[in-house]
Amino acid sequence: MSAFGQPSELGRIFNVQRFSLQDGPGLRTTVFLKGCPLACAWCHNPESQSAEPELVKVEGRCIACGSCHGLDESAACVDACPTGAQQLLGREVSSAELMEEVLRDRPFFEQSGGGVTLSGGEPLLQPAFVLQVLAELRRQGIHQALDTCGLGHREDLLAAAALSDLVLFDLKHMDDGQHRAWTGAGNGAILANLEALGQVHGQIWIRVPVIPGVNDDAANLEATARFVARIPGVRRLDLLPYHSTGAAKFRRLGRAYALEQVPAPTPARMADLAGVFEAHGITTTVGGHP
Length: 290
Ligand code: SF4
Ligand code: SF4
Prior knowledge:
Blueprint: E1 10-20, E2 28-33, E3 54-57, H1 74-80, E4 86-89, E5 91-94, H2 95-103, H3 106-112, E6 115-119, H4 127-139, E7 143-148, H5 154-162, E8 166-170, H6 176-183, H7 188-200, E9 204-210, H8 218-229, E10 234-241, H9 246-252, H10 267-278, E11 284-286
Helix pairs in contact: 2-4, 5-7
The chain binds iron/sulfur cluster (2 copies).
């Protein structure tokens, strides 16, 4: 049972990360939910994309003992492996269990002005669970942030946003074809959702991953800035420089990583790009640090 006297909703998560400084104000506990409607080529958390638990093999830990050979169930492989080379990512929790876990960090939230961020994956794929967790966090007086890629049902987005002190909203590309090519889906519903959200929520931070050769050209950045500048609820925009931390995770999942040769943008380049947005009157950070 949840504290409301309703049955606890079940959700599927793959990580709870404590003491994060990048997912909203103060020290945060970030809950990563499993499942995403996008498949971004640069994704830092490719293990989040599938809604199902996934078996991964950790490089360098396999001693070729053969214990897992012939087993066709993921959980059996994990149980059989003596070295931890086989791991199953993703677990089911109830909202009550998750609340118990995150409330341990309440003193850190109070000292730092932090709170809890629901991220992923895409939280809007599990609306009943997310709404129950957000409502409970609000009841407990804990600052809450929703981190969304923006692709979800409009009513779920607006309902979750109404229970969130802050919405972190990702924008990846303004060109529909390029968006589809790099993320697997067009941007029409995302942009329309942001426009609707911006009319009713006053604390939106836009997050733009800067991927050299993908979305850092002048035309795209200018189009992004023009679009964002006319959304009333946007308070700031974070430019997040590309880095290749997702590459090893793609390998563990047995998937190809398309951006192997892409260099991280330099601090000077990021500062130049921030200027594009500031010229439109948008408060802009590099890396989420004001
Ligand atoms: S929206 Fe985020 S979690 Fe989903 S695929 Fe893209 S980068 Fe990964
Ligand atoms: S059980 Fe683990 S260590 Fe043994 S072969 Fe399988 S993955 Fe390698």
